[in-house]
Amino acid sequence: xxxxxxxxxxxxxxxxxxxxxxxxxxCSAARSAYKVLKGGGSxxxxxxxxxxxxxNNPSFNAGCGSVLNVKGEVxxxxxxMDGSTLSSGAVSAVRNIANPIHLARLVMEKTSHAxxxxxxxxxxxxxxxxxxxxxxxxxTEYSRMRWKKNLAPDSNPVECQMGKMGTVGAVxxxxxxxxxxxxxxxxxxxxxxxxxxxxxxxxxxxYADNMSxxxxxxxxxxxxxxxxxxxxxxxxxEQGQSAEAASDLGLAHMKSRVGGxxxxxxxxxxxxxAARFSSLQMAWAAAQKDSLHYxxxxxxxxxxxxxxxx
Amino acid sequence: xxxxxxxxxxxxxxxxxLAPVSVQGVKAAAxxxxxxxRSGGSLVDAVEAAVRALEDNTxxxxxxxxxxxxxxxxxxxxxxxxxxxxxxxxxxxxxxxxNPVSLARAVMEKTSHVxxxxxGxxxxxxxxxxxxxxxxxxxxECERKxxxxxxxxxxAVNEEFNTQAHDTVGAVxxxxxxxxxxxxxxxxxxxxxxGRVGDSPVIGCGAYADNISGxxxxxxxxxxxxxxxxxxxxxxxxxxxxxxEDASQLSLQHMGDRVxxxxxxxxxxxxxxxxxTFTTKRMAWAAAEDDVLWFGIDPKEKLKEKLSL
Lengths: 310, 309
Fold this sequence. Notes:
heterodimer; A: alpha+beta; Glutamine Phosphoribosylpyrophosphate, subunit 1, domain 1; four-stranded antiparallel beta sheet; 34% helix; globular; B: nine-stranded mixed beta sheet
């Protein structure tokens, strides 16, 4: 059953012309992370690898390709968590770096803190020698077009975003049974400057504990935070629910209690995994026992052999 | 069922010379919050008022009197949660705001978001007419001296984090209809890095409120509270049928065992149970229930007096 990695590219409604890119994007992230695991890497190495691949892919709302805030700028959030020690690192509203997930990991490993925000996070990035990139390099034509469209007074960014969101994330278990999660996002379309969503908030955007499992979430951030979705799902697993049943219970609770839609990837320490969502679609991929699993619509589950796993 | 309002002034090794003023401060805040409820204010009004009273009191590490971060400036975090709708608002890393809890409430009520940080939060405050106060006004002479004293001993900070850091204020409340709410506000750890966000503004960590299970406000070693999502953990035990007292103790003990962190929490349940629990040396707390004001600062201490508003 071990190792295993499960990746998502965001829950929502993905326009047809972009769905193929989303699927191939999550598949290549899962392959890449699986290779790290097979090579003896830790679950933390694997989830960071998966998320960096997605951050570097302009089709997703993280790193390059992030949505823009109301001022047309890129502000990103990210979180990592290690299930063996419960150590975590997060950054919120960070600018001008290519891989927020890498910076989140540095916060975990190089500081005594768990979360750095805004200018303080940028300052820390500089002190660690993380290259500063021009904002322009993170912006795509697509993200600028959607920003402009949603500046119109009658626009509804929440609605539009539920249409096409793309927070990315991953969970993994390595051969030692250690779980980890990573989540990264550009946040919400046309958000206010300084808006922080669920992604960098431990328990909401992700959670990992070797006692129960790991979860990375995506969807309407404000709703996810209200029910602390990741932690909520793991509570159900602590009570004996399977990864799949716990994920469904958590998503159903979020829908009934606060009317929010979203999706999750979940693993338990034994390597059982789930990719579940209440939104119309979620691009996901999982790699286990040299097989790649992936899907986009509810009920969809394709499988293929990973040829170059060794 | 009667309304209850509980406040805390931070869990840490409160020195003897600060003990009486700390107790006095939490008692005054509980009285104030309770009087807001009695005069027809909402639950959110009541927890906001109680926390504002603590923010305005220089004895506590929040608002005026906050600890200084590494460059000698203040940086404040706060959150407020309405258990009926799960609506909440929070701010992290704001500077020139005397009452961050009120800004957190404005985020909840006036934006489609739930959390604002840094410059964005300051700009929002300005845009809704919240007065900016010069940084100096939030710094007390006493804190400046402490900061100077500690400046040279960053290495010792770890020890201080766990037991001695001046920490966080909060309030939880229940009304006669069974609704709950909570609020938490802090200046964070002394000599923290610029931009450090602790547990206080993070939902499920520094605070959580849900009419189904109850309301919690936490204090203590922020990074540890984050790791175990302490507020949410306590309420999950309540959901499993534990009393609020047992739920708090189990969760704080788990935090000690699993990540070696100490702290404290105040909790109310929709049925009117409440508890003030801590694993640090001390925590100043007070609770207004019916005509009685309960209070304490040392472990197992539970004193009472008639509640005069």
